[in-house]
């Protein structure tokens, strides 16, 4: 049990750090982590970098750092699989009693981790880092994120906490639970929420990136949001039944109305505009419905192939 961990025992902490073209930020990250943990004697640190197919010299930088710091391990994936897959690789390979997925760009401040460990020692199994201000994000990113959280949480039973990213502390039991989940398309935020466990949070202001640029543009975020909703809700598939019923009911009433009108006023030919509106409107609606079916079918198709989530090219360090 987590609660039995006495405050004075040594604990092994794994930092899981996905990196993709981050040659400018890795050294800054290690400096910052060292500053925090060199003065923490009770924490045995493992820093597990997942090099997610970087095309710059990130790997070289990492290996240089590893030469002088044996806490660093590097797992190199065979190509860019995306942050979710890289995180999955890290969670599967880390060995800490507690695990923290963290961005390398210092937007998830390592200074917060000792406080998270404090909460864990109180008996919590998950300690979320919650952003109290997102000034570092653009207005568009913030408001679209807000909408996404609202929509997602309306449609799913496992709610994603708002303003929470992947940065969190997890007990080993939570990591083991995540490893049990077999799906290959992994929306980590949703999976984290799905497994549950005793959760609390710590607030922080999200700083700007230490260097380099964000890897997520608008199109990637839109697809990320689609992934989130389709992974955890089938509501978009179901609304068509109700929309269909609604339109059938309306057209039935309309039919009665037209029949009565013909009986009372005789045959009335004009009606081109209203027919065109109905045809194009319903045509559009049907295409949207087919599109949504396609989103789910496509995902089912990919999932049915049971391909691995990621492939490892090489492991540097003692990870096996
Ligand atoms: N990242 C990754 N694979 C990708 C994209 C990003 O491993 O395909 C890593 C990236 O190196 C960083 C973290 O995910 O450590 C967060 O990325 P970023 O800072 O670009 O995202 P943002 O903070 O802008 O949402
Ligand atoms: Mg970032």
Brief account:
By secondary structure, the chain is α/β, with parallel strands linked by helices. 49% of the residues lie in helices and 18% in strands. The protein has helices spanning 26-37, 58-68, 83-93, 113-121, 139-155, 172-180, 188-195, 218-232, 235-265, 272-304; strands spanning 11-19, 43-51, 72-77, 98-101, 126-133, 164-171, 199-205, 312-316.
Question: What's the helix and strand layout?
Answer:
Blueprint: E1 11-19, H1 26-37, E2 43-51, H2 58-68, E3 72-77, H3 83-93, E4 98-101, H4 113-121, E5 126-133, H5 139-155, E6 164-171, H6 172-180, H7 188-195, E7 199-205, H8 218-232, H9 235-265, H10 272-304, E8 312-316
Parallel strand pairs: 1-2, 1-4, 2-3, 5-7
Antiparallel strand pairs: 3-8, 4-6, 5-6
The structure holds uridine-5'-diphosphate and magnesium ion.
Magnesium ion is lined by residues 103, 105, 107, 209, 214.
Q: How do the helices and strands follow one another from N- to C-terminus?
A: EHEHEHEHEHEHHEHHHE
Number of H- or I-type helical stretches: 10
Q: How are strands sequenced across the largest beta sheet? A: 7-5-6-4-1-2-3-8
Instruction: Please name the fourth-level CATH homologous superfamily of the largest domain.
Output: Spore Coat Polysaccharide Biosynthesis Protein SpsA, Chain A
Question: What is the SS-derived class?
Answer: alpha/beta
